[in-house]
Write a structure and sequence with these properties.
CATH class: Alpha Beta
Order of helices and strands: HHHHEEEEEEEHE
Radius of gyration: 16 Å
InterPro entries: PEBP, PEBP-like_sf, YbhB_YbcL/LppC-like
Structural class: alpha+beta
Organism: Lysobacter enzymogenes
Pfam families: PBP
Protein name: YbhB/YbcL family Raf kinase inhibitor-like protein
CATH architecture: Alpha-Beta Complex
Number of strands: 8
Distance between the termini: 18 Å
Largest sheet: 5 strands, antiparallel
Strand content: 15-25%
Number of helices: 5
Strand order of the largest sheet: 6-4-3-7-8
Helix content: 10-25%
Shape: globular
CATH topology: Phosphatidylethanolamine-binding Protein
């Protein structure tokens, strides 16, 4: 994520004006979430709740990587190394990078998986709910890899990230301590999460977690030195 001043506020304003148009219902639908006594019947309220709860959801129990190992699903990448600095090719253009999504490959898929989702999340962003860099849903179950910089195969959808852009946007945090970036693949029970492409990545992340049979994560880091 970049220096947050303008983009964060723009994204927040966009989230708060969200409408029902980006959800069309599924077995893990936003409409079912609205019926929860803990969520108001408003997409904008759901977005705010998801953004605020994301760090707690992602940190609950064991770390994502430990949970993934227990569940069997494995995520590998020729471009990412657990705990290491992400290469410039995958960093945002705003930080002088190539802004290419890294190559990803997954295996040991849980029985009953009907589709996959991919998310990239920065839990260290100076916002209440972290920062979503990428969300892809409805990847066909036959898909077990994505090439570097490649568009996901149809009928997969890339959703709106927290830069208010569709697709992948690489790291570009404010100068200071490096941020962590969690690349996660989700094995889902549903064939499709029926979200419009304008849906915020935060909602996709919450719906993927609710529908997951398993997930696997590679966490990398990136930072800018203080000037």
């Amino acid at each position: 994520m970049p220096a947050f001043a303008s983009s964060a506020f723009a994204s927040s304003a966009s989230d708060s004006s969200a409408s029902d148009s980006f959800v069309s219902g599924s077995s893990v639908s936003a409409s079912s979430a609205y019926r929860s006594p803990f969520v108001r019947r408003s997409p904008a309220s759901l977005v705010r709740l998801v953004r605020r709860a994301a760090p707690l959801l992602l940190a609950a129990g064991l770390p994502l990587s430990a949970l993934a190992q227990a569940q069997g699903l494995e995520l590998h990448s020729a471009d990412l190394r657990e705990g290491e600095t992400i290469a410039a090719a995958h960093v945002s253009i705003a930080c002088g990078g190539g802004n290419q999504a890294p190559a990803l490959e997954w295996k040991n898929v849980p029985e009953g998986t009907r589709s996959f989702a991919i998310t990239v999340f920065d839990p260290d962003a100076p916002t209440r709910g972290g920062w979503w860099h990428w969300a892809v849903v409805n990847l066909p179950v036959a898909t077990t890899s994505l090439d570097r910089g490649a568009a996901p195969p149809k009928p997969a959808l890339q959703l709106r990230n927290d830069f208010a852009k569709t697709g992948y946007t690489g790291p570009c945090p404010p100068p200071g301590k490096p941020h962590r970036y969690e690349f996660t693949v989700w094995a889902l029970k549903s064939e499709a999460l029926r979200l419009d492409a304008k849906a915020p990545a935060a909602i996709a992340g919450a719906m993927a977690r609710a529908d997951a049979l398993g997930h696997a994560t590679i966490t990398v880091q990136y930072g800018q030195a203080k000037k």
